[in-house]
Amino acid sequence: MNNLLTEIPMSVYGAIAAALLSSGLTLLGVFISNQSSYKRLKLTLDHEQKIKVEDRKVERLEELYVHSKRYLNTTVTYFFPYISVMKNEMTYNDALDQTIEIKTNYDPERVYLIMDMYFSSLRDDFKKVEEARDACHTILLDFKNGYKQGHFDKKAINKFEVAIAILTHEAQVFEEKISELAKNT
Predict the structure, then answer these.
(1) Which of 147, 149, 168, 175 has the fewest Cβ atoms within 10 Å of its own Cβ atom?
(2) Phi, psi (5° rounding) for residue 184?
(3) 123 and 116 in contact (C-beta within 8 Å)?
(4) Closest Cα to residue 108, out of 116, 99, 97?
(5) Could you report the per-residue pLDDT of 76-113, keeping only the tens digit for each?
(6) Alpha-carbon Rg of the chain, whole angstroms?
(7) What would the pLDDT profile of 54-68 be if each residue is shown by its tens digit?
(8) What predicted TM-score, i.e. pTM, was given to this entire model?
(9) How many CA atoms lie less than 13 Å away from 136 in the CB half-sphere?
(10) Contacts of 81 (CB under 8 A, 6+ apart)
């Protein structure tokens, strides 16, 4: 066996060593290349995921803006006929008829859902809108009770107009907050 190894020329050993060395270097090169490709692919995937999340957030902001705008416009518009009733320019029944005709092409539950799931920071601002809306309803209810008894509260119109102005203002502030959030996203 020893004789067999000595009969092999040294150049064969050199060729075997060179083949092993080049195979090892090739394997190392492939490993380094794969590591680099993996890192680049991971960066690309992370970036695409970040863009997807940002796009989804912008879509939800746009959806929240549209739904809340419809909701707030309808809410504010609802109260306008009652100003004429308070000025004794129309009857309460006529105002009711007008408010019934107002189309409700919004989903207030969608507004709440989007805020609760994605933009809870807007909840306090929307609460101010709801409080202003409730104040309008309270004034209107007090007026309605007096109206049924034949009493016209002259001060009710001033309180009601101020309450509607506050509601309109809070609605605009809320819309501006949504716009700010969209700009900062």
Answers:
(1) 149
(2) -85, 0
(3) yes
(4) 116
(5) 888 999 999 888 899 889 998 888 887 777 778 888 99
(6) 36
(7) 899 889 999 999 988
(8) 0.73
(9) 24
(10) 90, 94, 95, 98, 99
